[in-house]
Amino acid sequence: MSALPLFEKSGDLVGQADILHLLGCCQEQQGAPHRALPYHERALPLYQAAGDARWEANCRHSTGWCHALLGHYDRARRYREDALTLARGAGDRIHKAHVLDSRGYIDHQCGRYSGAVENYRRARALFRESDCSSAEADTLLHLGDAYLALGRCEASRQTWHEALALHRARHRTAETRVLRERLDALDRRPAAPT
To answer: pTM higher than 0.85 for the full model?
Structure first.
């Protein structure tokens, strides 16, 4: 955090916001969304004051994601919808895709599996158009989960195979292992009665 006082002293709002947002993202990556939230919440008004809509959208998305991870789905939705509006206005397809992926996560967690499928599919299309294969693969993993929750095992299998290919191409071994385990578990499921 030693860089933060330098940005504060110079009055660099975006620099301050970037440091705070990054610290929040680090906490989130360490599995501590409750510790990430205060950093994101401190960064948000700085991005707003600087008039940086693209990064404000990103910070709102991060804040909403932390709320979603903590099970605060209504708060998460509000942050996500604001982020989506800002991302659209800024023409930022990747942030828009991340927000749609998060919308899918919230829908999935709330038992709205069809909504999750729709949001994941839209996010996947944007990631693919933007040549963001890592995020596309993550979204495909989630899409497969939503298909499975709907009882659409074959759609789930096909989607996970697509994700597996993308993760293998990027040498993401942990994600590849998770997908192999899910596919193996799916193969062991009894066939649905006809």
So the answer is: no
